[in-house]
């Protein structure tokens, strides 16, 4: 055999092997976390939100240089096959990274389909358990966004101005620095904390009436458009935070898969409930509207969701048909 033929065969052989080895693969531990979130939703989701498991659990995992796509019904042509994965029981696709690797967001990132666009636990500063619960928060956003008439009704709020990108949801000029708004916001959040703490006490009815009064005064301190923005954020982000808590509560007697439990940074799910609850209430107590801005509304929605559970256990039936003003859900008619 000539040397040139020999070297050509070695070259082709080595590059064929390298190509097989170089096909990017999602990390094992990320597959386990994603599978756990999907399993939890399948087992618990319908008890929390009717119809949530009809919504595709589409994930775009953003790593240092690549993005991995899971459960997408019709991916765009820039994705290539990574593998037909046995852990997630689906095809995983990949492409070069387009989005920041610290994202925790849901939007129509690929072919108009709402994707959970998420960085790894390391990049998002979360352990495996918290990251898994965050996927459930984002899956609830998929549930919201795919509801009937969602985008038309959001547009009807007339809050976007000239912005056609959707960034107004983050950048709307809410009067965070207005002294009158700040003062009334403090009175409202104080009343909210008090009524949450008295849910099982005799003073609840009195505290609830005061909470409603302070909430109405906040509404009156805002312009109609500013109140629409506030209500929208409570409905969308606040109730998503409440949903996280509902999933955590549902996991009290849940047994994680052995693979999940064996991850180095796994924290038992049943240890998260009290910590999450107290953290959200502390956020309300310490939040400064002028500093925390729209993030202040997340914990408020969590608390108001708990109040709704107390006052009207059937309130979720109105959630997707009477959007954006959760005060309407207190009445069970």
């Amino acid at each position: 055999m000539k040397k040139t033929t020999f070297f050509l065969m070695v070259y082709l052989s080595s590059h064929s092997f390298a190509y097989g080895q170089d096909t990017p693969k999602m990390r094992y531990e990320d597959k386990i976390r994603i599978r756990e979130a999907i399993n939890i939703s399948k087992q618990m989701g319908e008890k929390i939100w009717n119809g949530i498991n009809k919504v595709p659990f589409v994930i775009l995992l953003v790593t240092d240089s690549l993005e991995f796509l899971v459960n997408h019904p019709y991916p765009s042509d820039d994705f290539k096959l990574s593998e037909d994965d046995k852990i997630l029981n689906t095809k995983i696709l990949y492409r070069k990274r387009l989005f920041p690797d610290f994202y925790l967001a849901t939007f129509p990132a690929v072919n108009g389909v709402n994707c959970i666009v998420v960085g790894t636990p390391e990049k998002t500063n979360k352990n495996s358990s918290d990251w898994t619960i965050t996927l459930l928060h984002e899956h609830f956003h998929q549930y919201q966004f795919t509801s009937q008439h969602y985008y038309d009704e959001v547009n009807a709020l007339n809050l976007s101005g000239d912005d056609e990108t959707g960034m107004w949801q983050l950048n709307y000029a809410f009067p965070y620095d207005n002294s009158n708004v700040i003062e009334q916001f403090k009175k409202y959040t104080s009343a909210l904390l008090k009524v949450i703490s008295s849910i099982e006490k005799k003073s609840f009815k009195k505290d609830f009436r005061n909470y409603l009064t302070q909430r109405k005064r906040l509404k009156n301190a805002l312009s109609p458009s500013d109140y629409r923005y506030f209500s929208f954020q409570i409905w969308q982000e606040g109730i998503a935070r409440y949903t996280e808590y509902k999933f955590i509560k549902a996991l009290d007697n849940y047994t994680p898969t052995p693979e999940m439990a064996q991850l180095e940074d796994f924290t038992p799910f049943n240890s998260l409930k009290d910590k999450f609850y107290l953290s959200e209430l502390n956020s309300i107590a310490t939040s400064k509207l002028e500093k925390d801005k729209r993030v202040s509304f997340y914990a408020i929605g969590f608390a108001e969701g708990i109040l709704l559970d107390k006052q009207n256990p059937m309130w979720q039936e109105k959630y997707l048909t009477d959007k954006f003003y959760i005060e309407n859900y207190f009445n069970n008619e």
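The first helix runs from residue 3 to 22. Confidence is low (pLDDT under 50) at residues 1-20.
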